[in-house]
Write a structure and sequence with these properties.
With 241 residues, the protein is mainly α. The chain has two domains: 94 residues, Helix Hairpins (Orthogonal Bundle), CATH 1.10.287.990; 104 residues, minor pseudopilin epsh fold, CATH 3.55.40. The chain has eleven helices and three strands. It has a three-stranded antiparallel beta sheet, sandwiched between helices. A hairpin with a 5-residue loop joins strand 1 and strand 2. The chain starts with a helix and ends with a helix. The structure holds manganese (II) ion. The site of manganese (II) ion (MN) has 7 residues, from helix 3.
């Protein structure tokens, strides 16, 4: 016999899975779809296979991280903006850059769930196996800002290890077009603080716990094998024409 607790849990899991479906399918789905907003925000598909980052980030972690955690941020963000059409029509970037303009009643939910959606949408694109080290103008900028790639790596590793609790570490470009490494707590997005993220590492336990357990430093070290430097460099070059 299914306990109430289990039934509730299954309903929640079904909701999360449903949120990942295209709107048209979800709307013709089972009765539960009426209570689960599937727009305006949608979960982007993972841009590669779940096992593409093995052995550094395992397929099971990617499944849970993308299909459950990211999907939940999207579902909860949609829920938060349901009765706020003015917010619902904004892009996620506009929302996070103007948090003070978001109605106080939903501001915290939007900051957390919207930040989670935005950060993870970028994060998947920032990952690719074996792209080496940064090249071109980004490599020069890193050398100029940090002294060398090795020094950048040291500061990055120290910052990521030092995030207390759950959060992220970012390589950002500030309003004066200067590079720096910054941690953010929870799902706060650097664009809320006027800084464009170029590279980010998710140091929430959900991003490494299955493979690395409590050993965050091992995950942070392994991360250097899965940075998509081509994506990060292209992003940098777009911002510094
Ligand atoms: Mn995450």
């Amino acid at each position: 016999m299914m306990t109430r607790r289990k039934a509730v849990k299954n309903t929640v899991l079904a909701s999360v899975a449903l949120a990942a479906l295209p709107t048209a399918i979800a709307q013709t789905g089972p009765a539960t779809s009426a209570t689960i907003p599937t727009d305006p925000f949608t979960l982007p598909p993972l841009p590669y296979a779940y096992d593409a980052l093995e052995p550094y980030i395992d397929a099971e972690t990617m499944h849970i991280h993308h299909d459950k955690h990211h999907a939940a941020y999207v579902a909860n963000l949609n829920k938060a903006v349901t009765d706020y059409p003015d917010v619902a029509k904004m892009s996620i970037e506009e929302i996070l850059k103007n948090l003070n303009a978001i109605p106080a009643k939903i501001r915290t939910a939007v900051r957390n769930q919207g930040g989670g959606h935005y950060n993870h949408s970028l994060f998947w694109q920032m990952l690719k196996k074996d792209t080496g080290v940064p090249q071109g103008s980004l490599a020069s900028a890193i050398n100029e800002s940090f002294g060398s790639f090795t020094a950048f790596k040291e500061e990055w590793t120290k910052t990521a290890a030092g995030v207390f609790g759950s959060g992220w570490t970012w390589l950002v470009l500030d309003a004066d077009k200067r590079l720096s490494i910054e941690p953010t707590p929870n799902q706060d997005a650097t664009i809320s603080d006027g800084k464009e993220p170029l590279l980010g590492i998710d140091v929430w336990e959900h991003s490494y716990y299955l493979k690395y357990q409590n050993r965050r430093p091992e995950y942070v070290a392994a991360f250097f094998n899965v940075i998509n430097w081509d994506f990060v460099s292209a992003r940098y070059e777009k911002m510094i024409p």
